[in-house]
């Protein structure tokens, strides 16, 4: 890589300029992309590892679809910082992606010393989590949810299981009252899908301000209180931003991971049969999903502070560079047996790699195991090809996952 200004290169054959002007207008917010992103990624590969795209109308960006290039960028915070303030300053008025990608005082949207400070607080809080208590929380939530639909013989695993499971468990771990958690989730969902994003952001922030203020007055044994205890002394809005990051990354993406893994286990005889027979661990099936359909398919956004030469393409300054975790994981140059292989980029890499991997894996694995133990004959109600995927530039998320199974009476899972 080089950070040399291309204007000094004379008559260079290397492409430079806005990625959109380079000849591609793939829109990541299009329903057609959500319906079959892997087909789109395959078509992109003729451009090389860096592809010109639009995240939304008139929001140009570069999508990284090459595994090795992604690893380089993810480990180069100097040239590819996550701080989006310069991009945000020049964004068009009313840009729908500012609520999602704009600068935040948290470990995801900062760089350098500021990023290290926020990451310290989150890592310290996560280290206090008792996985035995997490196990109990998941068991309670799963038992109540499964018993609410097991006598019907049908369910929508998104609305009846995966979402309420992750929502309840994260709300408990964060110490969120039920009404505040519901407000926060609704606001977050609007931001993620880009529908009413500004109003969603306001709802999200207001709900979290209330929670933080409550914990300041009455701390407890939860992650929000642990963030407040940290010696770095976060102020109110810094606290809100760290709590927002933990809650948002622990609900929606985790729900989608559980759904995508359950879909694989129900539709792929090899994975489903081996997990149910005990020949394969649920973790192996989850890793297969993290390779093929990670819940955050396009993420880890950075903003070069000056033009960057990567391979044979100049990336403009202050324009988003988005890592396609899904496309990079499926890059043909990194093929091979995926059983037991955890080299995927679904958790990110480098200084911004997700610090909550053990917690997320514990919740997802147990949630899947409890459902399959209770309802081993569960099957999709419709062919996999007919399932709808929710539009969105960043996630890989089923709209619904309707299933059928032999009806049974309520049960104890513990």
Describe the structure in brief:
By secondary structure, the protein is of the alpha+beta class.
Structure description:
A hairpin with a 2-residue loop joins strand 2 (50-56) and strand 3. The protein is built from 16 helices and 10 strands. It starts with 25 loop residues before the first strand and ends in a 10-residue tail after the last strand. The longest helix is centred in the middle third of the chain and has 32 residues, at 236-267. It has 414 residues and is of the alpha+beta class.
Record the SSE blueprint.
Layout: E1 26-27, H1 31-35, H2 37-44, E2 50-56, E3 59-64, H3 67-74, H4 85-90, H5 98-101, H6 112-126, H7 131-149, E4 154-156, H8 158-174, H9 178-193, H10 197-217, H11 223-229, H12 236-267, H13 269-277, H14 282-292, E5 298-302, E6 308-310, E7 313-315, E8 321-324, H15 325-329, H16 357-374, E9 379-380, E10 402-404
Helix pairs in contact: 6-11, 7-8, 7-16, 8-12, 9-10, 9-12, 10-12, 12-13, 12-14, 12-16
């Amino acid at each position: 890589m080089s950070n040399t200004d291309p204007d000094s290169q004379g008559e260079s054959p290397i492409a430079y300029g806005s990625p959109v002007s380079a000849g591609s207008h793939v829109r990541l917010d299009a329903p057609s992309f959500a319906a079959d992103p892997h087909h789109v990624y395959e078509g992109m590969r003729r451009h090389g590892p860096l592809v010109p795209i639009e995240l939304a109308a008139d929001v140009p960006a570069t999508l990284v679809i090459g595994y090795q290039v992604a690893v380089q960028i993810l480990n180069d915070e100097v040239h590819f910082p996550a701080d989006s303030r310069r991009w945000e300053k020049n964004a068009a008025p009313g840009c729908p992606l500012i609520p999602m990608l704009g600068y935040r005082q948290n470990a995801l949207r900062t760089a350098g010393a500021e990023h290290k400070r926020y990451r310290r607080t989150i890592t310290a809080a996560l280290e206090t989590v008792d996985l035995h208590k997490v196990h109990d929380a998941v068991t309670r939530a799963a038992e109540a949810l499964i018993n609410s639909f097991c006598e019907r013989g049908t369910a929508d695993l998104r609305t009846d299981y995966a979402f309420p499971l992750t929502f309840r468990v994260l709300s408990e771990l964060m110490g969120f009252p039920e009404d505040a958690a519901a407000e926060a989730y609704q606001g977050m969902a609007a931001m993620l899908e880009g529908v009413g994003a500004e109003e969603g952001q306001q709802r999200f922030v207001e709900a979290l301000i209330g929670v933080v203020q409550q914990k300041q007055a009455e701390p407890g044994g939860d992650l929000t209180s642990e963030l407040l205890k940290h010696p770095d002394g976060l102020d109110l809005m810094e606290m809100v931003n760290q709590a927002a990051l933990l809650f948002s990354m622990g609900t929606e993406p985790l729900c989608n991971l559980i759904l995508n893994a359950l879909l694989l286990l129900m539709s792929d005889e090899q994975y489903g049969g081996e997990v149910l027979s005990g020949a394969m661990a649920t973790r192996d099936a989850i890793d297969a999903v993290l390779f093929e359909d990670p819940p955050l398919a396009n993420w880890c956004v950075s903003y070069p502070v000056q033009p960057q030469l990567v391979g044979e393409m100049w990336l403009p300054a202050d324009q988003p560079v988005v890592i396609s975790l899904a496309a990079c994981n499926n890059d043909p140059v990194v093929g091979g047996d995926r059983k037991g292989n955890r080299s995927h980029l679904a958790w990110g890499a480098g200084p911004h790699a997700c610090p909550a991997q053990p917690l997320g894996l514990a919740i997802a694995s147990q949630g899947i195991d409890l459902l399959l133990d209770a309802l081993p004959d569960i099957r999709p109600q419709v062919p996999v090809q007919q399932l709808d995927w929710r539009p969105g530039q960043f996630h890989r998320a089923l709209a619904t996952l309707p299933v059928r199974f032999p009806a049974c009476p309520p049960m104890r899972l513990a």
